[in-house]
User: Fold this.
Amino acid sequence: MFHFATDAAQEIEVVSTIDPAVQGSDDDKARYLRTRDESLLQTEGATRFVVRALTPPQREAAEVAAGVYKRSELGRQLWLGQPDDPTERARWQHKLPEDEREALASYQAYLSRVFVEMVRVALVEIDDQPASDMIDRIKPEAHRLQVISELVQHIQRISLLGISGK
Assistant:
């Protein structure tokens, strides 16, 4: 049986686990990001985001806009091979030669640009208002980056697996 790409008209409503109004354990928040099961969390008063699935051409366009053909392949390989443990990763990165650190940083910047492009195309609404540039106004910056990262997780899941996420 063939599997077909999801329809870009598919939309879901999500919350961000970084939102101060979202309450739950770290494990429940992590599980929510994998399952989108909002019953794991207390979300009263949380900001609501509506995102839509991206078609394969839309995902490719986001990568092209972010510079896929200019990204550092060395940086990509280093990024794929870095340790999972944050302390171990920090020590590993500290020991890298300067050119490898620059390549890794360049690739991480590329990934950030891809995430921003994906959210720019897939984010439909924030709290029942057209999204426009509202995502850029989330403060502090660390929260904005976390929201973008979480939205990308949801966008990728519905784009690849559909609404059910399975």
